[in-house]
Fold this protein.
Amino acid sequence: RDQNGRAHTNGNKDSDPDSTDLSKWRLKVEKGRHVWHYLKTDEQCQQWPQTDEDKFWLGIDIGAPTLPKPKTPLDAAKNGFEFYRRIQSSDGHWSAAYGGPLFLMPGLVIGMYVTQTPIPQEWRIEMKRYLLNKANKDGGWGLHTAGPSTVFGTACNYAVCRLLGMEADHPAMIRARAKLHSLGGATGIPSWGKLWLACLNVYEWEGMNPIPPELWTLPDWLPIHPWRWWIHTRMVYIPMGYLWGKRFKAPMDPLIESLREELYVEPYESIQWSKHRNNIAEIDVWAPHTRTLEALMGVLSVYESCGGLPPLRRAGMRRAYELLVMEDENTGYQDIGPVNKMLNYICRWIEEGPDSEVMANHREKLKDFMWMSGEGLMMTGTNGSQLWDASFIAQSMVDSGLVEQPENKKACESILEWLDEHQIREDPKHYKEAYRFSTKGAWPFSTKEQGYTVSDCTGEGMKATIMLQNEAGLKTRISQRRLRDSVDLLLTMQNPSGGFASYETINAPSAIELLNPGEVFGNIMREYDYPECTTSVVTSLLMFRKIDDYRSEDIDKCIKGAVKYILAAQQPDGSWFGSWAVCHTYAMMFALESLSLDEQTYETSDVVKKACHYLLDRQREDGGWGEKFDSCVTGRYIQADYSLVVQTSWALIALLHAKYPEPEPIKRAVKVIMKRQKPDGHWDDEDTVGVFNRNCAIDYPLYPFSFSVWALGKAHRFLAAKNAL
Ligand code: LAN
């Protein structure tokens, strides 16, 4: 697995062993919530035996039997489900590792350290092992596991290893330090890294651009008011503003003192901090500061150096704190994602103290972000991808007809139970006052408790429901009334362009991107229209329209608008650009599905024809497709070194949506997917195919399952109809 030449040697000098006993880990799933437990005694292990699901994710062979060699695509899909049924979670969905980003664990470990939260020994051991496994050959870490070493990744994860107990003269630490120093040391760390290091007291707040919480006291109608920003960005800058106002830092201790020496190429005391506010190492930058941003920061820095306006600062901090309290309460202390989770964690600790009930809740929900794997313990991109994966699996089961097989019925019924349990049925507890979008009728990306509407998750959840209940005829669990709630919600999410964004409508002007202070991420300041989200929404509305005539005129109008947007978003070369997975291949699957709703297919539409040829031109010699992660960063299709099962499935589904008439390319693609299937029915997770904010890779280890089964099922139908099986 180690094509990147990653270091696997540990040779730790501290007192911890190099790894825990993998046979003692158990995943407990309750109401979609994932918690990994480490059992201490053999007796406990006997009472709570390891399941196939546990073993699979720990990288232990589950000993699934060899299945009869598939003769047709449908046989292969059947074999696929035969395997994956074994690792379905007890509550009906599929749990999965949602790793990839390497800038999350620093928040966790620094957050726990500065709040003196004890870190369980098994976490400590396995987090170290994970980081050693994910270090690049040069000793550093990237922004994500597929990226080159950066200052952000290296400085933060170096500090993490040290906080977890690794000695400075450990060989991996020596290598990492050398890499960091060769990149200029931690003064050039991007702003989010500056903030984490400042909290840890190994970077000075003076070396940061201001994050005035006063922004929250501006009038709501202002086009730059933070309520209009992309939800993830504003949720991160709320606690950041509070911590900035406090200039919070951990008390000095010998380890911090030592880190101050290790992280920099010059003596800590001699660093002129204010010069480093805009100093970001070149390798880290994706979105350079604009002149507008730096000018604004210059003005704000003068405001800060004059002492600001204390009453306004106090009001801003009060407001920021109120908002983050509401976020905690709206999400059961999960928060929207792991970054604001840990920032809120520190803020709440400052205000409420370690013994408060609030902190007990916060500590409990740390566990939801920890995922144990064969390579160690990681912090995940969200508290899971539960709904997202379950809805694709459900649809692949129905579309391929596998749902009809008696041995699969129970598994499909429990997916439906899960969908029932996790549809959100109310608006958030703190709603308008917390600037939240409506949630009634939504499905979230992960769990109901996390509780955020996502446009396409609602769409996919609804499609999965209708397919299971109405098409496959499973017992109805989700009433028509509840589906109408989803429709009502989705219809409010369309933008004037006709497209759909991710969590909300677009609420800020595009110029706001000029103020992106995040450096390492692109397109984070506001919502954007996405072909992927748009398609999920309109396909779900259309499916709904077939079973109910509720608001059918509104739905028709919405679909028309969406198709208009999809056509406008096509690039001159015939492709669509994908934002949430790699890359053109992914977006084209969605865009061509949208157009097929409008009866625009290969035979009837030049636009679709052009798109099909774009894909066919990129089909590889072996019949598959493989697009590199770098396509997302550069915006151009870049061929990977080999074809990937997941992207081959996407391209295949895209061509089938477009009703591409020739069986030949379809057959060649099917062959790739079948050839890569293991004798027990599963497919390896070959590479990271998820992405966000243009620059960060994220894993979807169940995609090789859901999309392969889906593509094979669809291709089977097509080839059978053409007599070309
Ligand atoms: C996700 C994952 C899922 C993704 C899709 C549903 C696939 C997409 O179609 C809509 C956007 C969404 C929900 C999405 C948004 C950004 C997320 C939450 C992530 C990529 C997973 C991790 C990422 C989050 C922002 C990570 C934390 C980083 C920050 C920049 C705050």
Remarks:
- Residues 232, 236, 337, 339, 381-382, 388, 445, 454, 456-457, 502, 521, 532-533, 580, 692-693, 698 surround lanosterol (CB under 6 Å).
- The longest strand covers residues 25-30.
- Confidence is low (pLDDT under 50) at residues 1-11.
- The beta strands are 25-30, 33-38, 370-373, 376-379, 625-627, 639-644, 690-692, 696-698.
